[in-house]
């Protein structure tokens, strides 16, 4: 069984995420850490009749929280609120993530590190550079959680297609209605995790044609890229809030994929004839450091070709293969059948990502003034 630590477990994302993880049968111990309320959250969750043991830890106990953790999830930090830009978020959250990652390096250096805190595009470089300085960096261990972008893409694509079918058929169409929970077959998301760095890819040409024909393609892209703004605006009536519940669900889905990969490491011993197909798990997308990963250099070359310049793309979100919870290979085939419009969006994303990554790298190098 697996110990999972949640750093920032009492926050808007941390609490619902911890609840969802408590329900996961692959977790044996859930270590909940925060600067306040963690013990109360853990006690509350411990009354749920699932087998994961829940223990809360405060600031002085972070070593105990992390010791023995196979997976560390970081939703800690300040959430987006009306008037707060992603630059503001970076200034507030970079120091928090750097300190937490330093503790991970000290107490569980081999843990798989999953960062939810925003802005992911800049905070993953902060995590990578911090681990490098601590001498424990492993490229396959560090993942930025971008799953919410895919969850939104699947949701919105189904909504637009269903709306079109209802109008075309004059009413509900029963079994032909698109199921939001099964749209992962038809859409993916690559790039980064903010604004125009988020690039939805519609794999099904008929669906893409339908969006274009109905004039909904641009609206679909914008909603996926700026879906977080919808939530911030809706919650602004009460003075605060960003995407917490949907982010918690997306985070738990990602953790589950990592857990599946961890648990499958033992299966080849029992099923020797199915080793290759059982021990690897492909997940939808995650924001990773490309150098040092299998196919990483090839992806960098593809991105340079798309950008049409001598760009230095070191980080990108794309489908990856996991083994024992670690990224072992990135999927370069994701770029093989993209449209010209999608190429243009990737080009724009690359330009913005370079700025985001530089900001994170400079922060750890003490070149950023907060």
TrEMBL record:
Note the Pfam families from the entry. Answer: Ldh_1_C, Ldh_1_N
In this chain the Lactate/malate dehydrogenase N-terminal domain maps to 2-144
Catalytic activities: (S)-malate + NAD(+) = oxaloacetate + NADH + H(+)
Keyword Manganese tagged? no
InterPro entries reported for this sequence: Lactate/malate_DH_C, Lactate/malate_DH_N, Lactate_DH/Glyco_Ohase_4_C, Malate_DH_AS, Malate_DH_type1, NAD(P)-bd_dom_sf
Check the record and name the CDD domains matching this protein: MDH_glyoxysomal_mitochondrial
EC number in record: 1.1.1.37
Enzyme class at the top of the EC tree:
oxidoreductase
Per UniProt, which keywords does this protein have? NAD, Oxidoreductase, Tricarboxylic acid cycle
Cite the Lactate/malate dehydrogenase C-terminal domain residue spans from the record: 146-363
Give the signal peptide, or none.
Answer: none
Q: Which family does it belong to?
A: Belongs to the LDH/MDH superfamily. MDH type 1 family.
Its subunit composition reads: Homodimer.
Name under which the protein is recorded: Malate dehydrogenase
């Amino acid at each position: 069984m697996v110990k999972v630590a949640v750093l920032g477990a009492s926050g808007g994302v941390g609490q619902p995420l911890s609840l969802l993880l408590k329900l996961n049968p692959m977790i044996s111990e859930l270590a909940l850490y925060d600067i306040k309320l963690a013990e109360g959250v853990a006690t509350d969750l411990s009354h749920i009749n699932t087998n994961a043991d829940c223990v809360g830890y405060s600031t002085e106990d972070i070593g105990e929280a992390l010791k023995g953790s196979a997976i560390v999830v970081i939703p800690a930090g300040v959430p987006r609120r009306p008037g707060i830009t992603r630059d503001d978020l970076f200034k507030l959250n970079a120091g928090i993530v750097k300190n937490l990652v330093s503790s991970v390096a000290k107490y569980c250096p081999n843990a798989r590190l999953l960062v939810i805190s925003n802005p992911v595009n800049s905070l993953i470089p902060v995590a990578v550079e911090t681990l490098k300085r601590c001498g424990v960096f492993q490229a396959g261990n560090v993942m930025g959680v971008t799953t919410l972008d895919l969850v939104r893409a699947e949701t919105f694509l189904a909504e637009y297609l269903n709306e079109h079918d209802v109008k075309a058929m004059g009413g509900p169409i029963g079994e032909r209605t698109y199921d939001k929970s099964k749209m992962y077959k038809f859409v993916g998301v690559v790039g980064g995790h903010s604004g125009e760095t988020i690039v939805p890819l519609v794999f099904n040409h008929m669906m893409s044609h339908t969006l274009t024909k109905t004039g909904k393609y641009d609206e679909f892209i914008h909603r996926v890229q700026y879906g977080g703004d919808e939530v911030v605006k809706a919650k602004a009536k009460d003075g605060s809030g960003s995407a917490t519940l949907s982010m918690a669900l997306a985070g738990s889905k990602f953790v589950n994929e990592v857990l599946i990969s961890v648990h499958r490491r033992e299966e080849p011993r029992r099923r020797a004839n199915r080793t290759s197909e059982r021990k690897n798990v492909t997940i939808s997308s995650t924001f990773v450091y490309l150098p040092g990963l299998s196919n990483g250099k090839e992806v960098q070359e593809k991105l340079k070709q798309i950008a049409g310049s001598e760009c230095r793309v070191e980080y990108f979100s794309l489908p990856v293969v996991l083994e024992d919870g670690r990224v072992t290979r990135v999927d370069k085939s994701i770029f093989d059948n993209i449209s010209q419009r999608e190429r243009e969006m990737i080009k724009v994303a690359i330009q913005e990502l370079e700025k985001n990554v530089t900001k994170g790298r400079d922060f750890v190098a003490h070149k950023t003034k907060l």
